[in-house]
């Protein structure tokens, strides 16, 4: 046995392939960090504990800190290795990486005779990159899914596809809701792939370059609304960030987007400009004019969180009356009645209350 250590590294790797199991149950090393990855780890742990013949042993690689994957692994007495891991020679058959955030080097990938699998929440090659779920929502995709692929060195999300499952995107679904659903679906697809991994590897297919798109990391710049350029539908998809704009030189966040609002202006001759504000009293919604209509929000975050009514009463009316003390706010009804209960309060264009470009 001591002669093994005198072999060249390439020969040792070949020998390990013959010594490792030729099918399930697998010796697994899991790489993950966040809540999306946690669903796959939970199902792998359950599989190991149930002796269902898929997972023989399970260890975890997690970044430092109180991340969901590390916390779960420690609570369930799984061996946790720090990143980057060392001393992996001959200990594992398959690696699994889910929402890990680090590019694995070729020398690490080669430690696993059956490679390293990745659970990715999109139908690759669409939405390669770190934020596929958000871009699915932001671009209004009607269909998405999960992909099990074999990772390759040097680049994210370009390896051959072993398994895919489609998932229709529900109307008005948020990125968080879609992520939760795809995390569960991806975990079950991973187990299905591991159950027949030999067959899946034989039938794997390279990704097509046709239809390949990139899903870059979400940045704060993406949250800024350009009222004259963006439609109600685009803003509604974007609000999961949440959205940011300015009012009187102050940065404010727009919360709880309700989508398109139907506004009946009191003066039909005056066309509202993008960024104009209207308060809908009966529904307690702050409506803002954008490229193709009005989009509503139930709350804003200025110095503190304010409802639409609080923002109207505490800021908009006070600003209007300070600038135009002799002018009353226009009162109109969006449904054509004039009872006190049905009135909406309009912040008129003539008051220069323009959210995106307010001039004091």
From TrEMBL:
Family according to the record: Belongs to the Fmt family.
Residue span, Formyl transferase C-terminal domain: 217-315
Name of this chain's protein: Methionyl-tRNA formyltransferase, mitochondrial
Keyword Iron in annotation: no
This protein's record includes keyword Transferase: yes
Intracellular or extracellular location(s): Mitochondrion
Source organism, top-level taxon: Eukaryota
InterPro entries the record matches: Fmt (IPR005794), Formyl_trans_C (IPR005793), Formyl_transf_N (IPR002376), Formyl_transf_N_sf (IPR036477), Met-tRNA-FMT_N (IPR041711)
A GO term from the CC aspect: mitochondrion
EC number(s) recorded for this UniProt protein: 2.1.2.9
Enzyme class label: transferase
One example GO MF annotation: methionyl-tRNA formyltransferase activity
PANTHER family to which the protein is assigned, alphabetical: METHIONYL-TRNA FORMYLTRANSFERASE (PTHR11138), METHIONYL-TRNA FORMYLTRANSFERASE, MITOCHONDRIAL (PTHR11138:SF5)
Residue intervals of the Formyl transferase N-terminal domain: 91-193
UniProt keywords, alphabetically: Mitochondrion, Protein biosynthesis, Transferase, Transit peptide
Reactions performed catalytically: L-methionyl-tRNA(fMet) + (6R)-10-formyltetrahydrofolate = N-formyl-L-methionyl-tRNA(fMet) + (6S)-5,6,7,8-tetrahydrofolate + H(+)
Free-text function comment from the UniProt entry: Methionyl-tRNA formyltransferase that formylates methionyl-tRNA in mitochondria and is crucial for translation initiation.
Higher taxonomy: Eukaryota, Metazoa, Chordata, Craniata, Vertebrata
């Amino acid at each position: 046995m001591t002669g093994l250590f005198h072999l060249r590294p390439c020969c040792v790797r070949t020998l390990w392939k013959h010594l490792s199991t030729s099918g399930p149950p697998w010796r697994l090393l899991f790489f993950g960090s966040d809540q999306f990855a946690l669903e796959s780890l939970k199902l792998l742990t359950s599989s190991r504990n149930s002796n269902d013949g898929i997972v023989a042993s399970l260890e975890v690689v997690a970044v430092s800190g109180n991340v969901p994957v590390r916390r779960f692994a420690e609570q369930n007495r799984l061996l946790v290795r720090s990143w980057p891991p060392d001393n992996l020679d001959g200990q594992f058959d398959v690696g699994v990486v889910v929402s890990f955030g680090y590019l694995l080097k070729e020398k690490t990938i080669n430690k696993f005779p059956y490679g390293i699998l990745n659970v990715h929440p999109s139908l690759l090659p669409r939405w390669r990159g770190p934020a596929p779920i958000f871009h699915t929502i932001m671009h209004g995709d009607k269909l998405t899914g999960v992909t099990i692929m074999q990772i390759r060195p040097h680049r994210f999300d370009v390896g051959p596809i072993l398994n895919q499952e489609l998932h229709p995107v529900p109307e008005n679904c948020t990125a968080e809701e879609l992520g939760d659903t795809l995390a569960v679906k991806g975990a079950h697809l991973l187990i299905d792939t591991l159950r027949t991994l030999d067959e899946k590897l034989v039938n794997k297919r390279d990704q097509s370059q046709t239809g390949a798109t990139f899903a870059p990391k979400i940045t704060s710049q993406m949250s800024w609304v350009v009222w004259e350029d963006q439609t109600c539908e685009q803003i509604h998809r974007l609000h999961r960030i949440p959205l940011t704009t300015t009012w009187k030189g102050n940065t404010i966040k727009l919360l709880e987007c309700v989508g398109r609002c139907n506004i009946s202006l009191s003066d039909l001759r005056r066309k509202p400009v993008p960024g104009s504000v209207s308060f809908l009293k009966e529904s307690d919604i702050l409506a803002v004019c954008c490229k193709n209509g009005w989009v509503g929000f139930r709350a804003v975050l200025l110095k503190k969180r304010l409802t639409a009514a609080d923002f109207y009463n505490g800021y908009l009316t006070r600003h209007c009356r300070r600038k135009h003390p002799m002018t009353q706010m226009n009162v109109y009804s969006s449904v054509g009645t004039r009872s006190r209960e049905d009135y909406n309060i309009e912040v008129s264009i003539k008051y220069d209350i323009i959210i995106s470009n307010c001039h004091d």
